[in-house]
């Protein structure tokens, strides 16, 4: 049982860490705005993965609600920040025309 | 009654933001009303902490871990008071600065920022801190781009992205903490935390994210363009408050959460970065061609001074000397908040009159606006760290402690920074002495000049001569 | 909270508050501004007279205000501070009158007189400082308040002079701050105490204390214009004449010299300073400055520059007197604080009058000014003779005591310095007097403004130099009477050495 939980947590958490690292690498390396924005969102997804993994307590047990609340809030925040960044990007594109 | 002021300080500006969005025609009136009420509730929180000690409120009756808890101790009350006085002054100034169209955009974002700021100072758990941090970053970036010019938008886009990166790093640290200890409340985390790789990684991630947002050298690159291209009242709030909030949080975590994990190497690293910021920021400020860019680089330098506090705090054993040192650091942060806001507000006034802010061509504009020039002068005295400003006292205490510890090199760094600051401030002030006789009226536009002057006076005379209450306030809880 | 505890603060505020109000005045409010100026000056004179009486009777006046734990703002009256307070208060009154006359019809007077008042408040604060922290605070405020006065005219010259002035004084201020903080970190809060506080310091910090002395001296030496830190003084001559008078006689250089006296007597203690060779170092520095300043003065054709280098030289008599171990030289040094002030302010007022009335700025243009402006020239002559050390003008008394003190202490080389410098003083002042009185006037003055009244120039410009010249004369003539600078300096020396 605990072995299964640990395995699932490791899988999700590990892929979360991988996503974070990928996102960070992409953020630092790539210049264009859109790629940076996607990179940041990728990082966010990675962090949320990690949080979900932390909340997992097995198939039969209800998950810890706290990390889930965090993820939900985090997604809302990330979406609004992305929206603002896109609005800025649009403004810059318009200026270029 | 007093407990209620805690949530009010966060919700009032939020309600105000909603009201000005619904009724944009009355944006200015409603906004100012919300500003006054918010500042009043925040100051009453500070007064209550002063007289009764630490305050705590669990919103909606939910306890730890799911509820949203607010807490005010001496440290948060001190920052809260500074931030709200500055924000009120900025609001009054903005009431005269923004005309109908831009006012409609300014007020909702500004009140949102204010709410996030108060929330950040009062939040009692690590995740709510993340939410306020993000809200602060988003609203700050939106406000910074308010002029809509290409430079402003580009600079603030960069600011937004960097800010997001910082918050992500912070959030990852929070996730680690929760994974390891299963709690998020600052007090509970502090009890549970143990030295080890998890705590270490979490600290690195969280403090690392915060120094990105606090624009500590060499992560300062985003700050000067973002702050210099924003409208004057927004620059004031960004430079005086928003970066200061990130510093506050770093200090709070350092003192309350990671205290058992700390080591001197980390503290020294922060201090060295701070020293580099002092020298580099001051140097760039000296070379800046525009007044607002100068002020922005000066912020980079001033944030550096604050981080020099970390190695000093780490080297000082707990006790009276450490309390004294911490109070001095807070005094430095608060004084800079007042001074930099006053500086930006006055600079905005000069810019508006002259039609530009190129320092070398300011001449007549500065001489025609005695009140604004005085505000720049008073704020400048505080930025340099000359008496009778709060900065002078704070630097004296910090340097005396550095000498007692035998860490004399911090003294050299801070004196170099002081002299460079004197050079760049007087480069501006020397423009106020011109040959042409100007009709001398002290105040020309009370609504915009008086807030700036008032902030300058608080920084230079208020906190320099009557800072003693801060020491009393900080005895409330902050020292654990 | 009795009046006694607030008297020192009241003396500082009596010029600070009018200064702040003057800033707010509209440019046209001449009468109100003059009223504020004169009220402040007269109230201060009254308060200082009260204080002199009290201190003479051994009364304690102390204002103490806690800035932060361990950091107190202390204003305290002792014999030495009262001497300096009395000097600056009196000369401020006179200079204010002069400045009102001098700046009539010129722009930006609210700004000028505002900073003028702050400047004097800072000087009085320096005089009354009861500890090193307070001294540093007012020392820096003095820098801040004098900068706008030097830059006041707004010409490129003024801007440059102000910049140089600022660079020097900020650097000096930083040194002073470093020294003060370092010292406080070693021995705790440094209260000015008669006889010093370091006599009982442990042996192992001795080297550090000696280092700190030179750091402090570097900080104070800038304002006191000790060579090689004197470069700002001739540059700052671009300021309006009343500002020069203030810089040279009342405020800035005096603040530096006064600080040196304080640090030697009331921080280090004269015995500690003597035993560790600090006095000798100070004496050599002062002597070099005295000779160098005089030599430079010889070569200047600009009258104000010649006076400026003369200041460099003369102010170091104060440091020289301090550096000789023994009460008699102390009297000579301390009394010169006042005497130099009286004489030098007279000379600057006169230089201002020549420039205003005749457009004469150079020594070579001064032929025959004596006949044309007899009152001004008479005052100038008294001041110049005093500087040389001709009896019975006050300068003679200073030099006499310095010489006696040096002989008493067995420092014969100091006597040589005194003689050399007096000869040099004569060499650069006597030709001016010769030109003024014994050479024929030119057909046309460089830029003449005829004054319609009875005298050569308006009363506000005439009476100040006449009064200060008379004071310089009587301070020498009646040196032995009670309450003269000499008597007071003897009181100070007695209290320092006669513990």
UniProtKB/TrEMBL annotation, chain A:
InterPro entries: CPA3_antiporter_subunitC, NUOK/Mnh_C1-like. The chain crosses the membrane at residues 6-25, 37-56, 68-88. It comes from the Bacteria. Keywords: Cell membrane, Membrane, Transmembrane, Transmembrane helix. Its main location: membrane. GO terms for cellular component: plasma membrane. Pfam families: Oxidored_q2. It is found in: Cell membrane. It is a multi-pass membrane protein. Belongs to the CPA3 antiporters (TC 2.A.63) subunit C family. This is Multisubunit sodium/proton antiporter, MrpC subunit.
From TrEMBL, chain B:
It comes from the Bacteria. One of its GO terms (cellular component) is plasma membrane. It holds the Pfam family Proton_antipo_M. It is a multi-pass membrane protein. The keyword Transmembrane applies. Residues 123-420 form the NADH:quinone oxidoreductase/Mrp antiporter transmembrane domain. Keywords: Cell membrane, Membrane, Transmembrane, Transmembrane helix. The chain crosses the membrane at residues 6-25, 32-55, 75-94, 106-123, 129-147, 159-181, 201-223, 235-255, 267-286, 293-313, 325-347, 368-387, 407-429, 450-474. It is found in: Cell membrane; Membrane. Its main location: membrane. InterPro entries: CPA3_Na-H_Antiporter_D, ND/Mrp_TM. Belongs to the CPA3 antiporters (TC 2.A.63) subunit D family. PANTHER family: NA(+)_H(+) ANTIPORTER SUBUNIT D1 (PTHR42703:SF1), NADH DEHYDROGENASE (PTHR42703). This is Multisubunit sodium/proton antiporter, MrpD subunit. The lineage of its organism: Bacteria, Pseudomonadati, Pseudomonadota, Gammaproteobacteria, Chromatiales.
Automatic annotation (TrEMBL), chain C:
Keywords: Cell membrane, Membrane, Transmembrane, Transmembrane helix. It is found in: Cell membrane; Membrane. It is a multi-pass membrane protein. It comes from the Bacteria. InterPro entries: CPA3_Na-H_Antiporter_D, ND/Mrp_TM, Proton_antipo_N. The chain crosses the membrane at residues 6-25, 34-53, 73-100, 112-139, 165-188, 209-233, 245-265, 272-295, 315-338, 378-401, 413-434, 455-481. Residues 129-422 form the NADH:quinone oxidoreductase/Mrp antiporter transmembrane domain. One of its GO terms (cellular component) is plasma membrane. It holds the Pfam family Proton_antipo_N. Residues 71-113 form the NADH-Ubiquinone oxidoreductase (complex I) chain 5 N-terminal domain. Belongs to the CPA3 antiporters (TC 2.A.63) subunit D family. This is Multicomponent Na+:H+ antiporter subunit D. It comes from Thiocapsa roseopersicina.
